Amino acid sequence: MTAKEIRESFKKFFESKEHLIVPSAPMVVKDDPTLMFTNAGMNQFKDIILGNATPKCRRQADTQKCLRVSGKHNDLEEVGHDTYHHTMFEMLGNWSFGDYFKKEAISWAWEYIVDVLKIDPADLYATVFEGSPEEGLARDDEAASIWEQFLPKDHIINGNKHDNFWEMGDTGPCGPCSELHVDSRPAEEKAKIPGRELVNKDHPQVIEIWNLVFMQFNRKADGSLEGLPAKVIDTGMGFERLVRTLQGKTSNYDTDVFQPLIKAMADMAGCKYGDDEKKDVALRVIVDHLRAIAFAIADGQLPSNAKAGYVIRRILRRAVRYGYTFLGQKEAFIYKLVPTLVAEMGEAFPELPAQQKLIMKVMQEEESSFLRTLENGIKLLQGVIDDTKAAGKTEIAGDKAFTLFDTFGFPLDLTELICREQGMTVDEKGFDACMQEQKNRARNAAEVKLGDWVVIKEAESEFVGYDYTEYPCHIVKYREVKQKKGTAYEMILDQTPFYGEMGGEVGDSGVLVSENEEIQVLDTKKENGVAIHIVNKIPAQPEAEFMACVDVDRRHAIESNHTCTHLIDEALREVLGEHVEQKGSLVTADYLRFDFSHFEKVTPEQIRQVEHIVNDRIRQNIPLQEFRDTPIEEAKQLGAIALFGEKYGDKVRVVKFGSSVEFCGGCHAKATGQIGMVRIISESSVAAGVRRIEAITGAAVEKLMDDAQDLQNDIRALFNNTPNLLDTISKAISENKELQAQVEEFKSQKAAQLKEAIISKAQDINGTKVISGVLPIDPQNAKDIAFQLRAQFPERLLVAIGCAAGGKPTLTVAFSDDLVKEGKHAGQIVREAGKLIQGGGGGQPHFATAGGKNADGLKSAVDKVIELSQL
Ligand code: ATP
Ligand code: MG
Questions:
Q1: Verdict on whether the full-model pTM lies above 0.85
Q2: How far apart are CA 771 and CA 760, in angstroms?
């Protein structure tokens, strides 16, 4: 079977077991503060598992794009070096939300693997949770006895808490799990060592393929466990590992998932996979990382300097470095593999072909800019490694690793990798300390301690904020959030008009008022589908009825900016072309920011055009048409464009202002007139192929115009309220230029006169002509005069001029060349004499100057020069 056929067979099998087949959620996670990337199939069902949402079907199955490069699951270091861990991989999964449990989960897994896919049962091993006395948990005999219907007892292995007890996090749903392992060693090896001894021992041919998680507990903040009311089945099977098993290969990279990519890369590098282990590792790393990067960009995550964007940048740089060091790639190369990737995976993941151009452009640019510094960085690091070795040490200093990070963009793991290749390590603590110092870069999440939820009322939370900004409500539950900067509380309400931050729109703030008290709502966040109100205190009577009141002025400004974002989006497509696609958006009360795909700078004329179109639509006062709970197919017929990287349910909300139609869950103006006016205040580049504009609306535009008007009036007042400001100013500028030229002319004339005057007063001291004096000129003139005199009197000459133009005294000294030959040194003399003007200076033997602070000392300084010259 080909990879594509295997993917389909999984879906078909679970469809036959009445599962709803759902699409993969985006790999980039947007509304869960604990997670940057989807790292398991269950992520997209978290709100269902937590009881915040009702599943549309209690049985579901899918293939999910996962990325394991940060946080709880980080397989980055294994990738390429072993043959069965990837950064990005597909996880096939089936779910039961309060429906079937262990019996069906295990027997269906068996049926699929053995009856459908015909994997030899003799090669299969199952693990079960052995129990944990300190948790008061017994062995999972239930799962074991089900496995016993299929497997001999010596193929069922007890596993510890680490491998066989799954937890969502420090708190929340958890439970035992059972893994299915496959032994694909040759028969003679199997005869020597039984497979059961190699399960979970990192043997490359005895690997885990499927994990069946039985969520039956909830872990509380104090660590204790309670029963979960609606039990959940969550299974995850590594697609690439399954394909490899079925295709009889010993490495995931030997399957048709990776071979076309490896071949393309090997061709580009002029080598052959399998000839040289170092090159093979590089080839594996590159094709693995390519998938991760391409899918992340397709899901809207561009490489950047922080958070999820930095993770992607790190992966890309890691791949570039492997190509550079082991495959001789000196110019951007990974992006050239994208067409092959699209050909292989584009059918199952349409986001890839749709954005191929953008993906390639972004990658090429990232690769090139990193390659520009890579060479220097590697040289620097090699120097550090050599020095460290010479000093008899094996650990690179942390600050050196930090310099590489900060100046050359070497992620720590890259530095560590290069070091490891030479038997060295890096002082991570020292690196972290440097990182900490550079605070603006280090954005380490403030440590938070979450208390248990205190439940006041059993109820679901409903958002009423599209229709109301004030609404009566009750508190459902609250908890304490302890942070370094103080304690706040999170609160969930049964009905709330407060919009929780999501989809780029900031959350509402306001107050909760009861008969006796008032509570500030500082912010509202949306987490796993529920609006969480951040409040300053817990009410004395939490059961009381409250009036929830949104800060209406702020909300209106947010609405205006959000509606305006839609109008700008549409106008950009009209002005620049249909390729414009939203790549990011931020809507606050003060301004809006909109990122979109476009391959060159937007010209000032185009910006104007966009503004005019949008302002026109604002003046038309187009009313909001809102379609809630619309089936997604109907929504598409309305003309709404689905964005890649967004997770849509079956029912969506569509927001329409005339010809602008968008999927949107945000808050909007009742009609476009509310916006007042728009002004785009900046246009810039975010990444290759992605532009950013920032704009303001309504009162903010009014303020901008007031400020501009005031400034103009002030300027006009300076010019006697001239009616034609522009002409007056340009006339003033050219007059000024003319005057400047005249002044320069006068200055040099004056200098010439002064020169004649001091020549006429020249002294003769023992045969040397001494021309000196304190003159009202600037230092440049003094220098000019000194050199002119040197030319005019080439023999036995000393020039000593003091000047104090602009209040800054300067002493200028020059000797003729014959006196220099006799040993006179203007630089030394000026340094000494300069003390009399409280200054210092120096220069060459034939010419030197000193600047000082005390103009009163100039005369005596000039005399001192003559004295020190010992003529
Ligand atoms: P392992 O111990 O092999 O790292 P795991 O215990 O981390 O696996 P789970 O978190 O249970 O794996 O994930 C479910 C399944 O996903 C695994 O059985 C495996 O088939 C697959 N899988 C996990 N991590 C990776 C990875 N980095 N690359 C490819 N497949 C993976
Ligand atoms: Mg793992």
A1: no
A2: 9
